[in-house]
Write a structure and sequence with these properties.
single chain, about 170 residues, Aminopeptidase, transferase, acyltransferase, about 25% strand, 6-stranded mixed β-sheet, 6 helices, binds 2-acetamido-2-deoxy-6-O-phosphono-alpha-D-glucopyranose, glucosamine 6-phosphate N-acetyltransferase activity, alpha+beta
């Protein structure tokens, strides 16, 4: 099931064949070599991140057990990661020691738009967040993408403001 799919990033079997040479799977430690940072550069500034930096951060995320669920689509024909979405699972004291999810860093390679890959990643990680027992999930997006996310039940909450301080 979706949760089992996202739990391990090492098993060879741990993928879903989408046809068209595309597979859905968790991010792997060797995805630096499959253009993962290049994919992320379509979203925002990535800075100087070499393979060693990538692997170190990957290991740190793995060590934070059950916290980072990074779901990707790979084009196996050219061995490129072409879409990615991260679910961050945050444990809390409130809401009966509940938990919430955050969706981060959704990106689809420009050459792979229009294939509903964003919908696929959202569907999978929404299900994972429900299995994890999150009482809510949230995300931030620019104006033009609001309609897209509203289709998945996300909405601007009355009286809630998203505040941000940048450094
Ligand atoms: C978008 C992303 C957010 C990402 C940010 C990067 C989604 C749903 N939202 O808001 O996760 O971290 O862009 O922009 O993917 P920044 O580099 O300006 O913070």
């Amino acid at each position: 099931d979706k949760f089992e799919l996202m739990k391990s990033s090492h098993s060879q079997e741990n993928l879903v064949d989408l046809g068209d040479d595309l597979v859905l799977r968790p991010l792997k430690r060797d995805d630096f070599g499959r253009s993962y940072m290049n994919l992320l550069s379509h979203l925002t500034e990535i800075g100087d991140v070499n393979q060693q930096d990538y692997e170190k951060r990957f290991d740190q995320m793995k060590q934070a057990d059950n916290t980072y669920f990074i779901c990707v689509v790979e084009d196996v024909k050219n061995q490129k990661v072409v879409a990615s979405l991260t679910l961050v699972y945050e444990q809390k004291f409130i809401r009966h020691t509940g938990s919430r999810g955050r969706f981060e860093d959704m990106v689809v390679d420009v050459d792979y738009r229009g294939k509903k890959l964003s919908k696929l990643l959202l569907d999978v990680l929404i299900q994972v967040s429900q299995i994890l027992g999150c009482y809510k999930i949230s995300l931030e997006c620019k104006d033009p993408l609001r309609k897209h996310y509203e289709q998945f039940g996300f909405c601007l909450e009355q009286g809630q403001n998203y505040l941000c301080r940048r450094f």
